[in-house]
Specification:
68% helix; Serine Threonine Protein Phosphatase 5, Tetratricopeptide repeat
């Protein structure tokens, strides 16, 4: 897929309202063109149907949306996950914002045939140095939450550390999802383990903002933060 042609196509679809909205969500990005996600996904799917490796590996992005499309093309490529690993690992190492990170995670669909490989890939990224590499690992692990592995997932995230704001937000989101889906196991883990204070506070805030937990559970989680501040 010719990158110059893709860029011209993106430029022809640029929308000022979409640009303002996207810029309000992602700070520090100065090359936003202004495409809606549906349009970016369409381009990524077209690229995935062709030579997706060449498309995804070309780092000559002018616009934010080109970067997003390159990552999504890897996720959409209809090949076994093991054939994507090298290309995906290189791409994840270059991520510098939460929107590309989380959109990519939302597009990677674990299936029965590749779930173990995707799990291992996600866990491995928690031990990487980069803030968004770690966030990628945490956000991907949310795809695997079920009643039997909540404590394992929470343990992996709680044992990972990075001072970055976007890591802490991603960690809190993943921990909160564990607690919302399995409140008893989640509450037990947060009660019995030492959690970064800022991550814990954000986790509880996300739990309380969710409509899914009962008021009783929300109150129980709120008291964890209060008891932490009293310690």
């Amino acid at each position: 897929m010719d990158r110059a042609a893709v860029r011209r196509r993106m430029e022809s679809m640029a929308d000022a309202d979409a640009k303002r909205f996207s810029e309000s969500l992602v700070s520090g990005v100065d090359n936003m063109l202004g495409l809606r996600m549906g349009e970016i996904r369409r381009i990524a799917k077209e690229a995935a149907a062709g030579d997706w490796r060449a498309f995804a590996s070309d780092p000559g992005d002018v616009y934010f949306e080109e970067t997003m499309a390159r990552g999504l093309a890897i996720a959409y490529a209809k090949v076994p996950f093991r054939e994507k690993v090298d290309c995906l690992e290189r791409f994840v190492s270059t991520i510098t914002d939460w929107m590309v990170c989380d959109s990519l995670c939302a597009t990677i669909k674990p299936t029965e045939g590749d779930a173990d490989e995707i799990w291992n890939f996600s866990v491995r990224h928690l031990s990487k140095d980069g803030e968004f590499e770690k966030r990628f690992g945490a956000v991907m692990l949310m795809r695997f939450i079920d009643g039997g592995n909540v404590e394992e997932i929470m343990g992996l995230i709680a044992s990972t550390d990075h001072p970055g704001y976007y890591w802490k937000m991603g960690a809190a989101w993943a921990l909160a999802e564990c607690c919302v889906k399995c409140p008893e196991a989640g509450y037990g883990f947060l009660s019995d383990n030492e959690i970064d204070r800022e991550v814990l506070s954000r986790t509880v805030r996300k739990i309380r903002e969710s409509w899914r937990p009962s008021e009783e559970w929300k109150d129980a989680f709120r008291k964890l933060v209060r008891s932490e501040s009293d310690a």
